[in-house]
Amino acid sequence: MIKKIIAAFVITATITTSLFATPGDKVEAAYYHTKAISVAKANLGVPYRWGGITPTGFDCSGLVKYSFGKAGVPLPRTAADMFYTKGYRVSSPQVGDLMFFAPNKASRPTHVAIYIGSGKMIMASSSKGVIITYTSNTYWKPKYIGAKRI
């Protein structure tokens, strides 16, 4: 009986949420993803700085935090905090999703990038600063642990 009540509640909540969601919700999400990517692209070439969160120097999570912040979406400071506390996991990244990487599949994420489409991501690289690279990059691909939509 309790299972039936819970199921009915979940179905009602889902229908109610979808009835009151507006087409603008998707437009707004597309806007802040596009804005965050534009901000990140405007910082191409900015040097890497460990702990950096400004255009004088970024580390990976600093670039993501700064870019989404300028788009009106506050994020935590570290890749791990972003991974564990924000958004929801997706199996196939879409433009604007965050991609997370770890030294091995069992460890906490230590790197984050923004997926920009066409198999590319923008990130702060410790060797090259803010760059665009392919998700199939031989260094990053084996370290990929998942994507989240914010």
UniProtKB/TrEMBL annotation:
Keyword set, alphabetical order: Hydrolase, Protease, Signal, Thiol protease
GO MF annotation list: cysteine-type peptidase activity
Name of this chain's protein: Cell wall-associated NlpC family hydrolase
Family to which this protein belongs: Belongs to the peptidase C40 family.
Pfam families documented for this protein: NLPC_P60
Signal sequence residues: 1-21
InterPro entries to which the protein is assigned, alphabetical: NLP_P60_dom, Papain-like_cys_pep_sf, Peptidase_C40
